[in-house]
Amino acid sequence: MIITSAKRAIVKILVLVAERIDVTKMASGHGISLMKGCVAMLVISASDIRKVINMRDAIESDREAFSLQSQGKAQIPLRVVFDVEGRGLSSFMPAYVSSFPQAGVKIVSIFSGNIAKNLPVVSATVLLIDPETGIVNALIDGTELTRMRTGAISGLATELLSNESSETGALFGTGGQALSQLEAMLTARKLLEVRIYDTFHERIGHFIERASETAHVFGARLKAAGSPDEAVDGADVITTVTTTANPVFDGRRVKKGAHVNGVGTYEPHKRELDESMILRADRIFVDNMEAIMAEAGDILIPMKEGKFKKEDITGELGDLILGNAPGRTSEDQITVMKSVGFATLDLVIARKIFDKAVEMGIGTNL
Ligand SMILES: NC(=O)c1ccc[n+]([C@@H]2O[C@H](COP(=O)([O-])OP(=O)(O)OC[C@H]3O[C@@H](n4cnc5c(N)ncnc54)[C@H](O)[C@@H]3O)[C@@H](O)[C@H]2O)c1
Predict the structure, then answer these.
(1) Do 114 and 168 belong to one domain?
(2) Beta pairing, strands 335-338 & 38-39
(3) 203 lines ligand 1 (CB under 6 A)
(4) Backbone angles phi, psi at 230, to 5 degrees
(5) Pocket perturbation via mutation, ligand 1, pick of 106, 112, 177, 340 by most ligand atoms within 8 A of CB
(6) Fewer Cβ atoms within 10 A, N terminus or C terminus of the chain?
(7) pTM
(8) By alpha-carbon position, which residue is closest to atom 26 of ligand 1?
């Protein structure tokens, strides 16, 4: 009797182990997603993402995505946006990279009424398509993925363009994207101090509290700035990640040799960086020229006023990576990176997250 139940237990364990092995194979093997006739999908949550990649991995992922994009190896059709009965917008951002190969889509919804339901106003999900079968084989939290890849844009630009001797940072904006921007800044350069500024002053203290562990890991001090001037004066690396319509600091105060990342605000009539910042820059890089020319008021407003030309943009960051555009050549030059984001960044990091999750056995199989 005892032997029989022990046998049963062993058989059960063996079945579970066998299934586990199948599941691992199924996800890692060349994207095979069939087990006993069932289609499996790996669900990767925000906390799973953090278990499998760090900011350094995200920076390297963005480096690859920029390079693929600038070599013409990625396709990013225009995003499709649906207005859902006035309740909100759902956007679909597909991408395809032939060299992996990999196709996928990021879905982002903005439903303001969700506040009343205690649900997030902005939600994002990335779906990956198995290149062997065309079946969706991964569903990844798009909010955390976006934070990582967006922080990494600035991290990469800071690494490529700022002076290595940079010691002081300034961060404008303390919202959802701010922590990964701080982490990226600190990953790229050994900053001793980062000044934090937000128009809602009470948010500054909350952010510093939230970010203190990250700052501690990198040995940096976070300081609340009482004004934009206080944040920007003498700063070597400046990142703006706000939702403002109007410039967040006076570009005339930026020191020679500084590097600036403009990350937030993406509408043609809105800008974070003022005209003097754009006109004083010796090098201006963008993430994706087509998207910037459609969305970035920081560039489009001075262009409309005849003070700046498209040709004044040094290039896409991918051109710099490929050696097709000049980077910083002197310690005194001011460099600017303006990003609005594009789907190749999402797809490349999604694939890295998926591969790593499969390798480490992280995520939930459906
Ligand atoms: N470049 C990209 O790829 C990319 C990716 C994701 C998000 N974004 C953009 O980044 C921006 C920030 O996103 P989020 O999720 O952190 O937004 P959020 O709403 O959570 O936070 C924005 C913060 O900016 C602050 N702010 C507004 N005006 C300011 C000003 N003049 N000076 C200082 N602070 C100011 C607000 O008080 C708020 O704390 C948005 O515009 C978003 O669209 C860009």
Answers:
(1) no
(2) unpaired
(3) yes
(4) -60, -35
(5) 177
(6) N
(7) 0.90
(8) 242
- Beta partners for residue 221, in sequence order: 193
Instruction: Write out the chain's pLDDT in tens, 366 residues.
Output: 333 444 454 434 334 333 433 333 344 443 444 445 567 899 999 999 999 999 999 999 999 999 999 999 999 998 899 999 999 999 999 999 999 999 999 999 999 999 999 999 999 999 999 999 999 999 999 999 999 999 999 999 999 999 999 999 999 999 999 999 999 999 999 999 999 999 999 999 999 999 999 999 999 999 999 999 999 999 999 999 999 999 999 999 999 999 999 999 999 999 999 999 999 999 999 999 999 999 999 999 999 999 999 999 999 999 999 999 999 999 999 999 999 999 999 999 999 999 999 999 999 999
227 lines ligand 1 (CB under 6 A): no
Please report whether residue 8 resides in a domain.
no
Q: Two tokens at 327?
A: 């980077």
Asked if 164 and 210 sit in the same domain, the reply is yes
Q: Among 219, 211, 144, which residue's Cα sits nearest to residue 189?
A: 219
Assess whether the C-beta atom of 210 lies below 6 angstroms from ligand 1: no
Q: Which residues pair with 43 in a beta bridge?
A: 139, 364
Q: Which atom of ligand 1 is nearest to the CA of 341?
A: 3
| Total number of domains constituting the chain | 2
Residue 76 has, within 13 A of its CA and on its CB side, a CA count of 22
